[in-house]
Design a protein that fits this description.
Catalytic activity (chains A, B): 3-(carbamoylamino)-2-methylpropanoate + H2O + 2 H(+) = (R)-3-amino-2-methylpropanoate + NH4(+) + CO2; 3-(carbamoylamino)propanoate + H2O + 2 H(+) = beta-alanine + NH4(+) + CO2
Number of domains of chain A: 1
Family (chains A, B): Belongs to the carbon-nitrogen hydrolase superfamily. BUP family.
Pfam families (chains A, B): CN_hydrolase (PF00795)
Oligomer: homodimer
Strand order of the largest sheet of chain A: 1-16-2-3-4-5-6
InterPro entries (chains A, B): Aliph_Amidase/BUP, C-N_Hydrolase
CATH superfamily of chain A: Carbon-nitrogen hydrolase
Low-confidence stretches of chain A: none
Number of strands of chain A: 17
Largest sheet of chain A: 7 strands, mixed
Helix content of chain A: 25-40%
Largest interface: A-B, 86 and 86 residues
Structural class of chain A: alpha/beta
Order of helices and strands of chain A: HHHEEHEHEEEEEEEHEHEEEEEHHE
Pathway (chains A, B): Amino-acid biosynthesis; beta-alanine biosynthesis
Chain lengths: 387, 387
């Protein structure tokens, strides 16, 4: 799928080029820790991954011991993947093919003890919003409560006692068949405990997603689960610090960022934004991006002077996880399906809040006051004029 | 000053380890552009820098041509430096020694055509706030309008037609001799056009700065100048996305971030935060950090279990500049005084706003509503409870 010439991994490229003291310094300054704290992966799973063409990587984020609280160890997992069959195949067939690919990776995640798993944005379909064609793509939209994706994942959630976050194209039949970009949260008993709709919708380059759905109306919910307080910031929401902030204010300990974004548009921003959010809000962030190049049956244009084309660009994967202290894992491959696992001690969130004090020093009242002025039509910016 | 064993530059380490296509891919993904667009520096200045032990680096950030607006080219400069003589010398002597070192670098900046220059946080003194001793350090505090630092820089501002931002320890004699951490803005006619006081004060590790000064009371001023709209986010304010946001809302095109921060505390965050702010707010950011290790006459403690010590840790320099499109310069040295220059086309700010639309998609009214609830004592976070 057009990835033969793509670099496999920037992180590996740099790490392989360095050694000894140099590599240590790179790790310390770049990743925020000298050791990546790699976790061992079971041999049978590595073998299974190789057979099925997906990478597995696992790391650990320890926290200090406390006297009163016990460690709160959680295994978080994220999956990045390409689509499974060409986009001109029937909708149901395309979806089922993705299901079968994902089932194998989820089985592996379960065998590695993952407690909370998040899939990529609109995982059960090609990212067809670039086409601006309504059909057949709107046929992928499905009920959050009992659509095919939810039914498929519910079963696995129960089987493996795993919380699964499923970002889909949602069809809201209760409210006039409207379509939303939605993350469905299924708990380890297979119950849909809630959903979050994408708060910020891009209109950039090929990403004219407002053709299909509006800005979300579900606020910034944090889901209290057996494995910590979790939230979902969908894709383009990662460019908005206020979006990250509200999940933090509502108490999130892990914020997943299921995305679909391509090289040429955002790749140099990718390592910056979700990581900055983890730092600023003292929580874990899990940034997930799909992989591969998706080709569509009909040509579309970008409005950027390029000729009409059928390919959207290369989804560069590179999913990674950042801790509240700003240290991060290397990214998954730029070209290959992958499962990234991190063992988190959630106690680290409050430890870092105590250390850095960003909440205490935040002066939220000042900003509420300033921002409430800024939204007014007669707002006068605080500008010291030129003489 | 204890820097012999320190790595000179992470950026150079990695760039030197790569070549050809690999280096190109690293530059594209890491820096956000394949070429660093280096600007030539005059030979006499390189020689002068070598003689006086400071590095000079200069880069360009071009923008697209527009039909209606002409390019708005501005040369911004930042200076990072160590102190000049030991901290047990008389206050006036210490300050004058720094003046003489800085004068040479400003002369060079002028000869390279710099229009706006920003010095590091509390540039005219050692960063003595770790000691928690009031004297002699409070003697460094000076009037923003006509203290020694302002008088010194006014002269250079006039001589070179340069705007100079001077972050100092301010003594406000009008308001009860209070002390502030303040950036004074001197325009190219030598006039103090205003000042900004540090909005967020750290209480972390050795940084118990609230011993000396309070959170600033000057809001988020943007200074309209002959060379664009500029603002200053002082040091620890870079951890607060709301602080960056308000400067953007008030119209800043370049935000300087004069800092003083040490390895072991923040180095892995350094490349993330000011860069993220440039991306999120579609403006240029200039991150400045001092260099070297400062040794104080008396021991102090950190409250982190370490034994009492006289050294604060290594200020790791690494000053860098980011454009609104998220591309950035390599950092200056981790150990050496330096002058970093970037030729900016300020038109890039609005071009990137038009491209990405972060302002348009920001939903500020939603956040004003949510945050105004969050500041209340009876705030109830939006939490979906566990069954």
């Amino acid at each position: 799928m057009g990835t033969a010439s793509e670099l496999q991994s920037l992180d590996k490229l740099v790490s392989n080029a360095l050694s000894g003291q140099d590599l240590q310094e790179f790790n310390r300054i770049h990743y925020g820790r000298i050791s990546n704290h790699e976790l061992e992966i079971k041999k049978n799973n590595i073998l299974f991954g190789n057979e099925n063409h997906f990478e597995i990587a696992a790391y650990k984020f320890p926290a200090n011991k406390e006297e009163i609280r016990k460690p709160r160890i959680v295994k978080a997992g994220v999956i990045q993947n390409s689509i499974a069959i060409p986009t001109d195949q029937p909708v149901t067939k395309q979806r089922c093919a993705i299901f079968e690919k994902i089932r194998k990776i989820i089985e592996t995640a379960a065998d590695e003890g993952v407690n909370i798993l998040c899939l990529q944005e609109a995982w059960s379909m090609p990212f067809a919003f670039c086409t601006r064609e309504k059909q057949p793509w709107c046929e992928f939209a499905e009920s959050a409560l009992d659509g095919p994706s939810t039914l498929f994942l519910k079963e696995l959630a129960i089987k493996y006692g795993m919380i699964i976050i499923s970002p889909i194209l949602e069809r809201d039949e209760v409210h006039g068949d409207t379509i939303w970009n939605t993350a469905v949260v299924i708990n380890e008993m297979g119950k849909v405990i809630g959903k979050h709709r994408k708060n910020h919708i891009p209109r950039v380059g090929d990403f004219n997603e407002s053709t299909y759905y509006f800005e979300g109306n579900t606020g910034h919910p944090v889901f209290e689960t057996s494995f910590g307080k979790i939230a979902v910031n969908i894709c383009y929401g990662r460019h908005h610090p206020l979006n990250w902030l509200m999940f933090g204010i509502n108490g999130a300990e892990i914020v997943f960022n299921p995305s679909a974004t391509v090289a040429g548009l955002s790749e140099h921003l990718w390592a910056v934004e979700a990581r900055n959010a983890a730092i600023a809000n003292s929580y874990f962030t899990c940034a997930i991006n799909r992989v591969g190049t998706e080709k569509f049956p009909n040509e579309f244009t970008s409005g950027d002077g390029k000729t009409a084309h059928k390919e959207f660009g290369h989804f560069y994967g590179s999913s990674y996880i950042t801790a509240p202290d700003g240290s991060r894992t290397p990214g998954l491959s730029r070209v290959k399906d992958g499962l990234l696992i991190a063992e988190l001690d959630l106690n680290l969130c409050r430890q870092i809040k105590d250390k850095w004090g960003f909440g205490m020093t935040q002066r939220l009242d000042l900003y509420v006051n300033s921002l409430s002025k800024a939204v007014n039509h007669d707002f006068e910016p605080q500008v010291v004029p030129r003489d």
